[in-house]
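User: Fold this, then the next.

Assistant: Folding the first:
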Amino acid sequence: MRLQIYQLNTGYISITGPRSLPMPDTEGFYPGPEWQNTRTENYNDHEYEVTEFGRILYPAMPGELKIGAWNWQGMVRWHDAWRRVQSAARMFTTPEIAITVMSLPEQPEGFSGAVGKFRFTAQLAQTTLTQGTPVRLTFTVSGEGNPNTISAPHLPDLTWAHMSGPETETQQEEQSTEVTKTFSYLLTPLEAGAHTIPSVPFIFFAPVIKNYKTEQSPEYQVTVNAADGGNTLVAVGGSADAQRSQIQVFEEKILPIITEGDALLSASNANNARLSTFALLSPGLPLLVFVVLAVWLSWRGRLSRDRGYARRFYAKNKCLKALKAAQAAAEPSENLDVLLKVFIADMLNINEAGLTSSDVEGLLKERKVAEDSIAMTVRVLRACERARYAGRSASPEEAEALCTAAENVVEQLHAALQETQS
């Protein structure tokens, strides 16, 4: 969405408005990055100074949506023929923009919600590996679309290696819809030999072709060289020093030359050391049990005495359980707004009766919740209210989208309100 103000670049005309211009209503859209810039542009043989406000919007649900009119009051100043400054108040407005958001067709297996125009690439740092030495495997998704709907690729199980991660990084191009999201894994080979890293698919919906599209990463053939020391790997919990301090008896009549005196005591004292450690710790076990029990009883007591704490503690699970029950009902969208308002009231320890979306917006601002979380909450609440009073049954796709959006709101608000109250 681009909002532009054209002003003749003559030095005799100027426009002033509020310190912070109000933005159009974008209910039903998830807000992305914003920007503002100023440039000059020639239009109808006149030079204008153009101030542009940009915001990337992602549709959050199917149906008939709209971007509201852009309305704001400003002051126009100019010089008359006698070079006197004149001014007049003006109301600036743009028309509404109607947008139809189509439902996605039946989703294929492996689709995680990404919609847009994407490229999918992979990079393995090297193909000749060493047993026990990790190497980085990176998958990159770049293109145009909501980065929050791009999930990590599903990797197959590798019996010959351990995979950890991913580490995720998102980069949004300034003043552009272009986004890049990377998923970085650490692959640690455990078995020497020749192995294969299979091709990994990335499935997304491409609006241009109105169908799902699958991009594949390349298949990698790797060679894993054995680690030094007879293919013996030191795993977590062990050490190379422990390996060296062991005594090996080759034959009954051949004894090893012992160069470290500590090794003589390692085997004979192992059991005594374990017994001594247990004997040392055992007197403290009753005290530990007592402390844990006291903390648990104190927590249970607070649940029974502090009603606000109890409401916050049970709010998330209670709401998610109710949302799942509503999703299975004949009319899933009938009470979604009520369930969300009850959840918010429980988290804030207030009465949910008569709570409106505007009330919710004000309460969340008082708690200093992030603006994007507040905007998403209000949009979903109003969408649920519209679905409830629409006079028609919501389609299965619309109901599913509303339930999913409501669950996302619960997760975000629970985390945000926990932070503000901690």
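Now the next one, as you asked:
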Amino acid sequence: MKKKRDLNVIFTVFILLTTALFGIYVVKNLYFDSTFYAFLDRTSPTLIASEAIAKKYGDTTTIMVLLPFDPDRAEESLREVDNVVRALEKVPFVQSVESLFNAQKNGGLLLGAPFIRFQPYVTVTEDSENPGHRKYAFDRGILQDRAYSGILISEDGRSVTVMLRKRAEMRVSAIELSNRLQSEIRSVTSLPFKLIGEDIVEADLFDSVRVLAFVYTPLIGFVVLGIFLLKFRSLFLTLLTLVPPLLSSIWVYFFMLVFHRNINSLTVLIPTFIVIIGSAYGMHYLSRFLEVRKETERRSGGGEGGRISSASLSATVKQASREEWMPILFSALTTMAGFASNIFLQMEAFRDMGIFASLGIFLCAVFTMVVTPSFLYFYRKSPAQKQESSIRARSTRESRFGRYLKWAFIGFTAIGIGLSPFLIPQVSLEMDSYRYFKESSTLRQSANQLKADFGWVSNMYLVFETPEGRPLSIQSEGAQKIKTFLDQVERIPQIANQMSIVKMSESLKIPMPLLVSATRMSAQGKEMTRPFITEDSFRVMLFLTSNDSAAAKEVKSGIESAWEDAELANDYTIRLTGAPLVWAELSALVVSNQVESTLIAFGMILLLLFISFRSIKTALFSSIPIGITVVFNFLFMSIFKISLDIPTAIVAGMLQGLVIDYAIHFMFWYKQTQDVEDAFHKTASPILFNGMSLIGCFAVLLLSPMMVYVKIAWLMVLGITVGVLTTLVFLPALLRWRLPLTFKPVWNRRKDASVQNAREHSID
């Protein structure tokens, strides 16, 4: 026994030293990828199109700077806007800046090239009497010019936008970009401003992910400590429950970094799940250790001075390990099944979640069985034990209340299942980066103000490319077809406005072919159209009323329908790019992945149940709680308008992996006793305690600044509640109406054999 203990301690020292080295590596190399492109495969059509257009035009995403404007004090307001524009033009990762100062009108015809006089709506002159001081003249006619009104300036003239296009070849993080832009703007103006765009979303998401990793995960750890401290009444034992999940989290981060896997808004949740779920393994092991120790002390008459001998302690640890390793391993396997179902999906981020969450849960179970006993070998103090209350002792009133509660929940379950075919199809499939944040967040308020002032909140590009890269040449007939096509596109309900050479042509009252030719001969014209024309293509900037995937799908469908009737296919090919299209593609992938992962998880768990119980009937009965829990998960999503998006898509699989442990626990004792009441009284207390522990831990995420993590918390809290009640109320009611189950699970047969061997040795 001493040899085994020494070997256990050696393994523990090795694990701790390795973890220390891994931890140093993690601290030096830890990063978070907050981009939503992290969820797309390199073969994604949206990603390929975005990269191709970025290479052609030299820019990628667009950022809007929203500033207040006073038409009655136009010169003062224009000076502030000009200061902002000039400051932003100096930022190295900004490709172009577009504002009121780029807006042009027709100033008449010229006798020679470029034949058109471009006259700005905002005239800037240097003050000869005051060098460095500029004078500004504002033409209010811009408020009636549809090429700019509602895009660069609001229709009432009270707000203006400054559009930044990020340079394609520059590699800069979203957080660095956001901080630099804010710093530059604050250095030149005291006006209140707002930044809106996908890069700003990613920057705020980066901050939220860091907060989740470094604030909320430790906070959940403290909640675990508080809950288990009430149970064990020992700080040492309570801290010991967190050692395996903390070690496992470091190992998982290390492997993710070594294999260059993204730590994104989805995979950053892995340590949180490991702490919440994995700490229960230590709790179960320590509970069994204390039970064995209590029984040993009872037989021996108690240790001297509240302490236990070294030999007795070693025997207690050995017995607890022998009895708990199989249940803990099986619990880990069922939980892993819930996560591992994501491994077979198309989205790389989901595969990473499945692989590394499963690895973390497995490592946590292994560390529980290796590291925890090693610490217990040096723990001889007898902890104060809370007196266990008997669930069997109930008053008549409580029994009557229990019956009412039972039938109420059974009725609630039946109604929910009956309504599920009608409500589940109504689950929202919309994905919107802004909805990741709470309504009170700065980002949401900025987006809401942009929509209130301008009627749009996001943008995408419609790109026309000539076949085989031929030089762009627009003829009169082709120009009319393009205008007709874009007029039809602009009538799509989700499109609020568009900015293009077509709109400029209408504004300037100049035919498009002449305008294109003129802009190539005029410095002002080139500057005005530079973001929209290349040698072999031109693009239209579409402004959308919403940033969600549903709007993007409608826009894409409407454009494709209009294109079929446009008779332009011989002259151009078209491509759509933009963040809303990323959400549309992700939405389609998430829906298909959700169906696949739910079915795969259910199948894997059924297989584990059959291997354990060797009975199809028992496996099916044990799976009833997870089936009901998954159904109610989607019911809650439908009722509370929670969208099926990237983070919420993993909830169903997690719930299956967690709730099945309750069903296994109950069915194990039912098969032992063949009595529903006995099984209930033996399992109700630990199931309720474990459920309340998980609910308490996930409830911490309700305080998260990100709405998506709040939604995960609500779904997990409600799902675990349904899972616990289904196991303790619905499952016993079903078992009372069927024949008893007679087969024993695998670990019980092995346990019975070991007990029989021990008895034979004691008789000898």
